[in-house]
Amino acid sequence: MVGQKCTRLLHSALRNGSRFLNRSHHAAVVSEYGKIEYREMKDNSPREGEILIDVESAGVNAADMKMMNGTFHRKPQFPFTPGFEMAGNVKSVGKGVNKWKEGDRVVVLRSNGTGAFSEDCIVDTNVDVIVPLPYSIDYETAAAVSTAYGTSYLALEKMAKNREGANVLVLSSRGMIAFAAIDLAHNIFKAHVIAASDDELKLDKLRDTGVSKTINYKKEKLMETIHKSTMNHGVDVAIDTVGGAVFTQAMDCVRPGGSLFSLGFTSGEIPSISLLDLHRTQVSISGIWLGAHPKKETETIIEMLLGLFDQQYLQARIEAKYSLKDIGKCMEDINDNKLFGKVLINPKD
């Protein structure tokens, strides 16, 4: 009897050991440009200086789409898991990690731009942006904040140093950053906001934010409409996420001495700037990329923004949520221009 019991225990241990050695999770994987798949992946353990994140929600950004299509300036080796913005829990920690422990709720931005579209994600505490997530903020809200609000804040904080009550023009075709820029400009920086897009259905959603005016830049002459709305003054600040011809038109909407901020190129067209136009318009132009900012500075900004959400000064607008299994459908809907606003991937759904 003793021998049989020992044999059963041994077999059980071997089976459990086999499962332990072959633990797995699921992730979205790009094996070639334009192709993304839902796959089972072998688990990794955090090494020195790393933590393993149990991903509850991941934000989808224009940079993710460009990386998957091979048009982003960063080109990871195949196969790779896209996504750099996530919220979740610390699942385990590697050697030398003292700041974080198992169970901590966190918001993360991956410095290399990959890994978030997964059930688990290894994070490097030395280079990745990691911020504690208050229990009062849910994972989906947290996953929608970092990139859109962080990028918008970097542009708008410069305006805040000048004066309250400025006129701000926000141009968007995808809405991923537009709602954040409007939310911050209207509720934090007390600006008068004009929103412009290329479709009436999109403009209806922008009107719901309480903007002063909306413009369909496909049907209306942007410069003429802006100058009419501002008594020929022009806007103090323009925030462009579209690029192409829209960016060029935006230059003529800004008052002399005002600022134009480029936050992205969702049109796929990167505009060229004429030095003569800068002399003519007297507009200051800046490109804003959150990923270029130092880790500690970015963490400070995100912590501050989460604090504003915690105090209910801001409210994220989420357009759609997809399960990890439906990653292909998500990418298809975004590419087909069916979604306008922040999109999330929820691996647990």
From TrEMBL:
<dbReference type="Pfam" id="PF08240">
    <property type="entry name" value="ADH_N"/>
</dbReference>
<dbReference type="GO" id="GO:0005739">
    <property type="term" value="C:mitochondrion"/>
</dbReference>
<feature type="domain" description="Enoyl reductase (ER)">
    <location>
        <begin position="34"/>
        <end position="345"/>
    </location>
</feature>
<dbReference type="InterPro" id="IPR013149">
    <property type="entry name" value="ADH-like_C"/>
</dbReference>
<protein>
    <recommendedName>
        <fullName>Enoyl reductase (ER) domain-containing protein</fullName>
    </recommendedName>
</protein>
<dbReference type="InterPro" id="IPR013154">
    <property type="entry name" value="ADH-like_N"/>
</dbReference>
<dbReference type="InterPro" id="IPR020843">
    <property type="entry name" value="ER"/>
</dbReference>
<dbReference type="InterPro" id="IPR051397">
    <property type="entry name" value="Zn-ADH-like_protein"/>
</dbReference>
<dbReference type="InterPro" id="IPR011032">
    <property type="entry name" value="GroES-like_sf"/>
</dbReference>
<dbReference type="InterPro" id="IPR036291">
    <property type="entry name" value="NAD(P)-bd_dom_sf"/>
</dbReference>
<dbReference type="Pfam" id="PF00107">
    <property type="entry name" value="ADH_zinc_N"/>
</dbReference>
<dbReference type="GO" id="GO:0016491">
    <property type="term" value="F:oxidoreductase activity"/>
</dbReference>
